[in-house]
Amino acid sequence: MSAVPAARPVTVPSFRAAKGAAKLAVVTAYDYTSARLCDEAGVDAVLVGDSLGMVVQGHPTSLPVTLDEVLYHTRCVVRGVRRALVVADLPFLTYQVSPRQAVRNAGRLLKEGGAHAVKLEGGVRMRAAVKACVDAGIPVMGHVGLTPQAVHQLGGFKVQRDAEQLLADAAAVEEAGVFAAVVESVPAELGAKVTAAVGVPTIGIGAGPGCDGQVLVFHDMLGLFPDFRPKFAKRYADLGGAVTAAVAAYCAEVRDGTFPAAEHTFR
Ligand code: KIV
Of the four listed, 61, 155, 218, 237, which is most buried by Cβ atoms within 10 Å? Predict the structure, then answer.
């Protein structure tokens, strides 16, 4: 096991400067407790992802998530983080309408949510939105490859194999000023190719080991989400099984009268 990094806070410039020097570990979190645990474990960034629509709210996609919901979860996460960078996702239709809309809503995630940066999906088509946010002083993480908010347009959560499109998208958001970019669900060779092509860190999810860092969804990596298990989501624990077993033991003890015992009872 490698050592947990020193406690110096991660900043947007230090995150960006890690390219080529150190691999970046990013995890999603949606509440105070999980954010605190991830921060104490030494993650470089916590992403308040709109994946909360699936793993917290139980929707089949992230499309129904609102800006107010991301704001709420961002405030919870920020209270649990000491060192990591906090990046908040802009949900579907909170930035695609116009660059002006993007700035307003991204600004709210920083001003009202306390995030350090925002993430938005899309490449060439989102160049103006990214640039407008960056010009307004809002750090932006890009997201190319599989963009889950376009799930219906893409025909499902499918591996993206169009190298030309991926490279054009990554170049467009880099030029517009992103400090890093998530690269989702592309073949490993493409993940490595896009990483070599851009000057900002690529954070892969299902994009192979050639990226500058990796991101996983908290519930996937801990075995807490039973509905869907993507190939790339390595399980580091089976907390789902542990929770069910613990709650079942509690139910049994309540029913047979062994809980509460003397040590859990006031005299
Ligand atoms: O919403 C999210 O959690 C994400 C990550 C999967 C990158 O965008």
Answer: 218
